[in-house]
Amino acid sequence: MCDSLKAYGMKNIDVSLLLPGKDGAWWDWWMGAAIAIAAIVAAMAAASAIAVWFFTNGSLNVHKREAAASEQDFVAYKLKIQGKVADAAKAGLEAGRTASDALIKIAEANERAASYEKEAAIARMETEKIKLGVSSRVFSDRQIEIIVKNLKKENYAINIVVRGEDEPSTYASKLISALNAARLLRGNYYTLAPADNWTGINIYVGYETDPDKFNSNPVVKAFRLAGINVGSITGGARSGLVTSPNMERPGEVTVYIGFKPTPDFSPN
């Protein structure tokens, strides 16, 4: 300390001169007081330093813990959001699966409905077939008019052979009466003998097998103009059918009226 005072030029200064009349006891008391004050100041400085360290350390650690807690809260919040997103995605998948199942059920229902409709259509078709099978054929007045008109124009008389059962006989009676009245009927015959070509109406035009000549025959054309499907019978196919001497004359045409055709029948 002396060196310090010397450095400031204060080593040889007599400070007692500044306060004259003060004895040594007085100066001793204030010296002790100054030392005590210095000690207190030093202690306070040390305490201040300790306080600074203590509170600084506490502040730093508390902030660290708060930051860590905030980070944990953020992580927890993030996980919570991710969980909600996952739940939403799962719910979406479930909804999609439910919608897909609904579409499959709708498709199955449509398929069943189509199947039922098909079965109903088949049933209606079968009913129509039964109706067709039960009801009798009838020559309309217009059909009779066309046949008679065209045969008269060609001056072409014909033979008619009818299957003897009720339906074919009833069907042919109107045509036979009209042809007979118009003098276009050479002969008509009924038979119950079994034979081929006894479905629908088939026409024999002799032993001619040329389709073009058959199609151009006036009798064939007259029936077809009336909207009636007819098939052909050639000489060799007439085995077992009713014939008579006048049917064998050149140019003779015989119309064979057989059973009522089924709905899927088509003449030969």
Description:
The chain has 268 residues and is of the alpha/beta class. Among the domains are: 2-65; 141-257, no CATH class. It is built from 6 helices and 5 strands, in the order H-H-H-E-H-E-E-H-H-E-E. The protein has helices at residues 2-7, 24-134, 141-154, 166-181, 211-215, 218-225, and strands at residues 158-163, 185-191, 201-204, 230-233, 254-257. It has a 5-stranded mixed beta sheet with strand order 2-1-5-3-4, with helices on one face. Strand 1 (158-163), helix 4 (166-181) and strand 2 (185-191) form a beta-alpha-beta unit. Helix 3 packs antiparallel against helix 6. The longest helix has 111 residues, at 24-134. The radius of gyration is 66 Å and the shape is rod-shaped. The termini are far apart.
